[in-house]
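S.,

Sequence below, as promised.
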Amino acid sequence: MRQTKIEGVEEPMQHTSLSDEALVSQIASLCLEGRRLVARLIVYLIEVEDRALDKKSACSSMWAFCIERLKMSEGETSRRLNAAKLVVASNSGCAGQERSAARSGHL
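The prediction came back faster than expected:
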């Protein structure tokens, strides 16, 4: 088995010593954590748009803000902004609660 190093990941990967079951369990946990982080990111993007921080940052749009300021790829920007629009459209009454949950880490 090989040791994998990824730039920006500070802790050494200890996956080689895990059992198969433990490895799959760790991956499932990471996937869940990733989904939670994406949900928080979407809520924060909604807040950025509500506060017009894209304009205050001299960006012409949320698209430009995500690409230029947040260094997202075009694909990631498209997915995140589309998700944000869906959240706003379907949960306009709940958006404040979602933002509070995201800020406190309970989303």
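The chain has five helices and no strands.

Coffee later?
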